[in-house]
Amino acid sequence: MAPPAPPKTPARPAAPTSTPLYLQAFNLVHDVLTGDSSLSVLIPFVLFALDAVLCGIVIWKVPYTEIDWVAYMEQVGQFIAGERDYAQMAGGTGPLVYPAAHVYVYTALYKVTAAGQNILLAQQIFAGIYLAALALAMACFWKAGTPPYIFPLLILSKRLHSIYMLRCFNDGIAALCLWAALFCFQHRHWSLGMLAYAWGLGTKMSLLLALPAVGIVLLFGRGFHGALRLAAVLAQVQFAIALPFVLENAHGYLGRAFELSRQFFFRWTVNWRFVGEDVFLSAPFALGLLGVHAALLVLFATTRWLRPAGVQSPASLISRVVAPVLTQFGSPFSDSEEALLSARAASPRFITTTILTANLVGLLTARSLHYQFYAYLAWTTPYLLWRSGVHPVVQYGLWAAQEWAWNVFPSTPASSGVVVAVMAVTVGLVWWGATEEYAPVLPQEKPEEKKR
User: Which residues cross the membrane (predicted)?
Assistant: First the structure.
């Protein structure tokens, strides 16, 4: 008889496999930066608080540099004294060459800063303007689905802090209005957005660069007749703020506030130093830039911006949009099509990508950029590089190259080449990669056209 078998020893449970601590930390950081963590929402608030502290340090530690502030104060001083002829208003750096809203804004600053003598208070006010613009830009980025790893790029620009707090340029106010308009458009407050845009345009005409895209956004968001009404609001605001000066000397106001034939000085250019002074001052160069600007606008309008409305080429633009407007003197879309475009095409991401792309195209082909124009570019590039879909390392690398180039003073052929190259690469990348927001909503041809 065989001996009984020994009792079986119960098997030990397998030891749980635990993720190493460093991998847990890496995964947490990755999820936070890509927006996959509940902590991601804290990133903009933390960065905003850090930048508020940085603004205080900049004002406290970095000496103020006088460029245009005294001239602004001299110009509005003449306005306060009763002058209404734009052709007669000038400061130490030259004549007044900005629209009327600039005069009203700096008149208010004149009064609260003791005729411009309290520079510290002016810097503190511009720190508030900067932080308001930053908050709006962050809100627009978040609404458009921008991942948190992009947000640090919004607070790291040395040049941008200088433009606002060490120079007190009017470009900072115009840029604030542009971001306010974007924020309102994203939330479908179309009239408020147009008022913000109109005031920014009345502060500095640089906001004209975004106008083609603003028109398309309003066409989709409010429909043809709604867009026309908002265009009328834009015109009415410009007329109302200009009225005291137009009544005095209409030609003088229009010639100075919207001087399209202005002569640019080679010594101040940030973007075209590398072409040489002879080319920079030549008429063919200016006309060539204008032609490239128009061509890029047509390219983006026909292959991207109007694609939700069934436009995919210049020919379809004419047949789908232009011809019906000219022949019917009305909307190229039916009521149901307009409702569909408003609901499905005019998304926060479509609005942001379209307006910022038009802004960048205009800056790329601008006759000359000065350092203060970085106010319109600094927060445009990070968003568009993200929308292009390139790797984050490439995004940060291009941003760093751009930031370096805009901090070289005076500009050099190398720095200006980098300025133009980064903008050109970004334009090409966003055209190639940002296609999701431009998915077709309407067919390329109308049903009645197909039947024929």
Answer: 41-60, 125-144, 164-185, 197-220, 226-247, 279-301
Residue 343: count of CB within 10 angstroms of its CB:
12
Q: What is residue 416's predicted lDDT score, i.e. its pLDDT? A: 97
- Say whether pTM exceeds 0.90: yes
Please tell me the distance from the alpha carbon of residue 44 to that of residue 182, in angstroms, as a whole number. 18
CA–CA distance from 444 to each of 61, 319, 323 (Å)? Answer: 59, 10, 14
Residue 2 has phi, psi (to 5 degrees) of: -75, 140
| Helices 69-80 & 100-112 angle (0-180, nearest 10) | 100
State the burial class of residue 226 (Cβ atoms within 10 Å of its Cβ: 0-12, 13-18, 19+).
Answer: middle
How does pLDDT run across 350-403, given as a tens digit for each residue?
A: 999 999 999 999 999 999 999 999 999 999 999 999 999 999 999 999 999 999
Low-confidence ranges of the chain (pLDDT < 70): 1-17, 260-263, 444-452
CA distance readout (Å), 254 to 7, 97, 106, 257, 283: 103, 10, 19, 5, 23
Closest CA to 334 of 443, 187, 191: 443
Token look-up 């990508």 returns 353
For 139, residues 6+ apart whose C-beta sits below 8 A from its C-beta are 183
Q: Within 13 Å, how many C-alpha atoms sit on residue 26's CB side? A: 5
Q: What is the pLDDT of residue 37?
A: 86
